[in-house]
C-alpha cells in the first residue's frame, strides 16, 4: 500500500502574461491570444493582424499584410513568417500542418485579417511579433503601417513530469499488451512491468500525493496548486492519463477524505463539476455525466453567478463549497486540486486473476 507522502518538492506553476503595445497604429492591430504561454499547459497560441480601412489610419487601402516574428524582444531580429496578398492568397514559411493553421484575407470593406494558430506553443513561439500592412494613403501614395506585440513564455515545471508520466503510461500499456498477447507468465516482462509501474508512481509522487488504489482508481492531490484554475487542472489531470476527480458516491468521498483530505494542509481542494453552462446543473468535465453526489455543508452559500466550480473546504469539515473557476489562484498555496487516474497496478492484478 502506498502511504501518504510528505512534501518532496515544491513546484510552482505560474503564468506570466505581459502585454506591450508600443506605437499601436490605429487601423492596424496586432493581437496575441494568449499574451503569455505556459509551456505544456497552453493549448494554442493565436497571432492576428487586423486591419480596418478608413479608421483613423494613413492607409485607405491595404494590398498586403505581413507578420514577422523575432524570438528575442529585446534585440528584435524579425523573420517574415506569413503574408496575405490580395483576397486570400497566403504565402509564407508557416504553412498549414497538424500543429499550425494559417489563414487570412484582405477585404476592402470589412476588417482584413491575417491569423496563425499554433498548437502546443513552446518557448520558440515567444518574443516580438510585428504586423505590417502595405497599401496606399488617401493621396494614392504607397505607405506602410505597423504594430507590434510581445508574447512571453514561462516554463511550467509540471510539463517535464507530465510528459514523463505520459511516456511511462504508454510503456506500461505496451507491456500489458505484450503480456496479454503471449498469455505467458513471462518473468522478465513481469519485472519490467513492475519497474515501469514504480517509475510511474515515483514521477507522479514528485508533484502529487497519491492515495492507495480504490475501485480501480488512484487519487492524486497536488503538492502545490500554484496558479492553477479549473481549466488548467482539467488539462493537467488529462495529461496524466486521468481527469479531475469525479466523486460519485459516499464510499468514494469517504476514501478520499480519509486517505488525502484529512491530512492535507490546504484550505480547499478542487474537484470535478461545473454548473457554468446551466446554473445548478452540475456536470463533470471528463465523463460529461451530471454530478449526482454532493456533500453540501448544512449551510450552503447562496449560489452566485460566478461560483461555478466545486471544491471541498477544510473549514467546513471538507464539505462542498462552490468556487469561482477562474480565480482559484487567488488563494495561493491554500488551494489544491485532485486528479483521478486509472490504477495500472489494479489493472495488472485484475488481469492475473
Ligand atoms: C488484456 O485482456 C483483457 C481481457 O481479455 C482486456 O480486458 C484488456 O483490455 C487487455 N489489455 C490490453 C492492454 O490489451
Ligand atoms: C466502483 O466502480 C464502478 C464502475 O465505475 C461503479 O459502478 C461503482 O459504483 C464503484 N463502487 C464504489 C463503491 O464507488
Ligand atoms: C443532467 O441534468 C439535466 C437537468 O436535470 C438534464 O436535463 C440532463 O438530461 C442530464 N444529463 C444527463 C447526461 O443525465
UniProtKB/TrEMBL annotation:
InterPro entries for the chain: C-type_lectin-like, C-type_lectin-like/link_sf, CTDL_fold
CDD domains: CLECT
One matching Pfam family: Lectin_C
Signal peptide coordinates: 1-26
Domain C-type lectin: residue ranges: 214-320
Top-level taxon of origin: Eukaryota
Protein name, per record: Uncharacterized protein LOC129922894
Gene: LOC129922894
